């Protein structure tokens, strides 16, 4: 069969070097090369097929995931993949599995909180997967408030053991991935009690299942917590429930890097700074931001390609309908998301640098940038995951009716993505943490303490409170300086207004609670500024490739100006810009849409996603959508027979009016 | 076991008569009585159980739906239910099924477009369900643009038949519910061709399947189009694909009320006004608005009750954590949705009146209000369904991690609801229709033609363009006149600004396309005004019951002021209010939240939903959430065995390092 490319004419319109853009998107030629190679490896291996996922029942689905995880590990060993390659391989397999928690939470927890001795004992086992571990923190009644956990770990000096116990129903561990059916071990968080005193929450390594036959050890009850949102999606994961009935573990299975319990049962703090935990948080949240740009770019890739294939209304002279991507309403919804995908990619890249910087400083006992880095990653995690979740659903709607079919890939992408808004810090709780940091920063402005990093602009607060925006004509909104100043003024003014309103309360905590909705808005403004400014910084670098930088400049401006329009209320109410200027920005935005239009398909090609990874009939590289949709439909189990199961019992009696005596 | 009511203390706080509010919500004592009785009937019948829906495979799920539909029909006959009761029963069964299309589209299409003779022939069969019908309009390549359909119906004068044919792949009928596996008949929309001329799209009654054995008739290919978004949800429906290969039907199966084809093959228009079709649209969209308030209120009921049960952070002196409903961030997200549920309920009720009014006028050949009524229902369909889809997901997020479990009911509610944003008019396409009407209204203002109905305020455009808002202190924002004037000014000014910008284009159609994003925003502003004003009108009626009206006034103000905050940009950029006034409105909003807080649980109790209908462990009436979540978890098929299927093949070899030679 001749190779189809319905999108060839779109691709020929591109005004930039797509291959060079692929390098920019990947971050480096090295990363591109690995991603490209590994993603093709996965795509070409039938064992990693995933297009039937939506149709499988829970048990079948889960067993299939176990098979893929084992196969992936086998391939990793056979091909002697590096850690980086192995991690890419798991990424492109694109199916939540117990391995995510084993590699992403269990091992890092031991590395971060275990002593050298503990690491030497446990890590080699974990690296070889001779044990499989999960991270058992949240409980049925306790999520965000880690200090409220109820599980206890009581030291028994007579036997030199801890007794792990679940005193209530609400103390059941609930949600940990990999726990329900697979993990042999867990890092369990429990209140440490020794000598009759409660020393708060600490981590313990607990064996859960027999290494012989996988059955739960005595005193341990474990199960899966049941179906979650969507077809396929996170139902491939065995999120679990776990209860302890006085389970004993040796004392040396408490993770003792930061605090210890001695043989006599004395609680001792080590001299390792507690701030180290924040370093780990910065790391984890950095990966979440990077994942956001992946999920968002997938959705945008599908919606963009399909918008170029789909035609509706309008009529050129040849009687062919208009491509929906040519409608301004479609562009106005789609292109800001395309721009966001790039924006989140670059801010994620910057966060990687931030993590390295923080780590180096921590090693040199320099904690000065930690609060700012912590607030910044918390805020960016919240901002990017919320925006991505909404964007995936918007992309689904942009695909019209067909976006509702599982074969579009978008329903599963949404369902599998949305937990990111809740895990590793609920997005609203995180915004309040950012707000606390912002209020502290504002309150210290008078004291001469200079704000650092992403809050450095607060140092110019006096200027920003009274500056006025320079934009006089639409093109002025293309200047990075004009955009930055508007975003800085808006953010600074919102923070200062909150601080002033807080000052009216006698009790600051009461004020913080009462004004919390306004405070989250100030946090969002601050975080959007960070993303905008990091995009602008990226463009100050040398970026090779014909037209590549020009396209990125257009996307950067679309990102900023579409936010400016959406959050017009903030900019106007703080007087950061005038209505006239808002309207000019909007005019400029429309013209930017026209500029990005011929490049749209090439800009999503630059993500370099295989059809396997995309997992969408609508987003196929070749745009051959309709024949494939038609083909996919027939695979549904309901089409196994022409006359459906149940016809004789339930449809025929209805038609023949023979219901009256039927037993239904 | 003693009856638990974890929410008793919440209920005792209510400051109004819940039973009276139930009547207000239902619309009348009569409607309340029927809803209450029928919902209990369904809830108490084990045949209508639905809590296992998320776990069923497609075939099992679908067969189960057939069973329920047959059982429902049996009960309707046995109990001799009235049409109203029967329709309520189907509603409370709460499972999309072929019967929705049979009663909701097939029968109305014949009633609306069939001649008296055709109605006499077909309707009795349909009423008794001796035939089952669906509505086959959309095609694989054609959705919103009905005039672009490709299926042909060519008249053959030799045999006095139409030949129905699918000339291309993209002309395959695609999406019709009930088509894939169940319907014996369909109203098929196809291009009428006679005498070599194409007369555009008309409806035809076509038999699809044999009445003997249910197999598709010769020349007809039918199947299901495959899995759709979510667990359970619309997968209970057999949305179908249908292709015709020169299928012949008698001439009298063309629906001939509006146009006919004579025996000789002449196309004739009847004198029945074509506008009648719009009457049907007004009806269908009215029911969609009413459904929006149902879906939204379900989600809000779940989120409100769970927010009162869930505790996190904070600590009263007794060591108990704070109910999350007490956090202002939670209130700020939840209470506007609670208010929206009531707002949509009342605007839906008003639309029922509008439909009656339009129908009476049509019968008297008065078409004067039709364009306004059509624009109004199109806009409200778009506004309420978009807001509801977003709100359900927001409610899910408000339930934290547990909202992600299917047992919360929210994932399925979202998945089953979202198509409402696309079907019966894509929401963006509808907003553009509203915008066209608004632009026309504005352009006619000078001509002395007085705008009617919901656009009457445009008649005061000169005043509204220069009026200034009266609010001087926060409490001024409680005055309906202040709110109305602000919403009217914003909407009028946005429409006028669009009209002025359009005038700058030489080609009006080009201008409309270029400015379409702005135009949709003007439409939204207009539609929000309608909802606000209908809520205010409702409160001008006499509403009995202690405290009932007071609560509704609070909700009305929350609805309006939360919109005012969210769309601050519109209000400020048009100069309809000042920043200071926006800030006062926000202060007032916070104080309204405090007023609604003690009544929140009682306000969702007033929806009178059974636990069966709600289908949510988190939203249980008794608030006994944790034990039931725990209980539900164990029902998952994965928990059938302690050691999972696949352990021996895939987990053990991993742990024992025996992968190398395994065949995976």
TrEMBL record, chains A, B:
<dbReference type="InterPro" id="IPR036250">
    <property type="entry name" value="AcylCo_DH-like_C"/>
</dbReference>
<dbReference type="GO" id="GO:0003997">
    <property type="term" value="F:acyl-CoA oxidase activity"/>
</dbReference>
<dbReference type="InterPro" id="IPR006091">
    <property type="entry name" value="Acyl-CoA_Oxase/DH_mid-dom"/>
</dbReference>
<keyword id="KW-0285">Flavoprotein</keyword>
<feature type="binding site">
    <location>
        <position position="177"/>
    </location>
    <ligand>
        <name>FAD</name>
    </ligand>
</feature>
<dbReference type="GO" id="GO:0001676">
    <property type="term" value="P:long-chain fatty acid metabolic process"/>
</dbReference>
<feature type="domain" description="Acyl-CoA oxidase C-terminal">
    <location>
        <begin position="480"/>
        <end position="656"/>
    </location>
</feature>
<dbReference type="Pfam" id="PF14749">
    <property type="entry name" value="Acyl-CoA_ox_N"/>
</dbReference>
<dbReference type="InterPro" id="IPR012258">
    <property type="entry name" value="Acyl-CoA_oxidase"/>
</dbReference>
<dbReference type="Pfam" id="PF02770">
    <property type="entry name" value="Acyl-CoA_dh_M"/>
</dbReference>
<feature type="domain" description="Acyl-coenzyme A oxidase N-terminal">
    <location>
        <begin position="17"/>
        <end position="132"/>
    </location>
</feature>
<dbReference type="InterPro" id="IPR055060">
    <property type="entry name" value="ACOX_C_alpha1"/>
</dbReference>
<keyword id="KW-0443">Lipid metabolism</keyword>
<dbReference type="InterPro" id="IPR046373">
    <property type="entry name" value="Acyl-CoA_Oxase/DH_mid-dom_sf"/>
</dbReference>
<protein>
    <recommendedName>
        <fullName>Acyl-coenzyme A oxidase</fullName>
    </recommendedName>
</protein>
<feature type="domain" description="Acyl-CoA oxidase C-alpha1">
    <location>
        <begin position="278"/>
        <end position="439"/>
    </location>
</feature>
<comment type="similarity">
    <text>Belongs to the acyl-CoA oxidase family.</text>
</comment>
<keyword id="KW-0276">Fatty acid metabolism</keyword>
<dbReference type="Pfam" id="PF01756">
    <property type="entry name" value="ACOX"/>
</dbReference>
<keyword id="KW-0576">Peroxisome</keyword>
<dbReference type="InterPro" id="IPR009100">
    <property type="entry name" value="AcylCoA_DH/oxidase_NM_dom_sf"/>
</dbReference>
<feature type="active site" description="Proton acceptor">
    <location>
        <position position="424"/>
    </location>
</feature>
<feature type="binding site">
    <location>
        <position position="138"/>
    </location>
    <ligand>
        <name>FAD</name>
    </ligand>
</feature>
<dbReference type="InterPro" id="IPR037069">
    <property type="entry name" value="AcylCoA_DH/ox_N_sf"/>
</dbReference>
<dbReference type="GO" id="GO:0005777">
    <property type="term" value="C:peroxisome"/>
</dbReference>
<dbReference type="GO" id="GO:0033540">
    <property type="term" value="P:fatty acid beta-oxidation using acyl-CoA oxidase"/>
</dbReference>
<dbReference type="Pfam" id="PF22924">
    <property type="entry name" value="ACOX_C_alpha1"/>
</dbReference>
<dbReference type="GO" id="GO:0071949">
    <property type="term" value="F:FAD binding"/>
</dbReference>
<dbReference type="GO" id="GO:0055088">
    <property type="term" value="P:lipid homeostasis"/>
</dbReference>
<feature type="domain" description="Acyl-CoA oxidase/dehydrogenase middle">
    <location>
        <begin position="134"/>
        <end position="245"/>
    </location>
</feature>
<dbReference type="InterPro" id="IPR002655">
    <property type="entry name" value="Acyl-CoA_oxidase_C"/>
</dbReference>
<dbReference type="GO" id="GO:0005504">
    <property type="term" value="F:fatty acid binding"/>
</dbReference>
<keyword id="KW-0274">FAD</keyword>
<keyword id="KW-0560">Oxidoreductase</keyword>
<dbReference type="InterPro" id="IPR029320">
    <property type="entry name" value="Acyl-CoA_ox_N"/>
</dbReference>
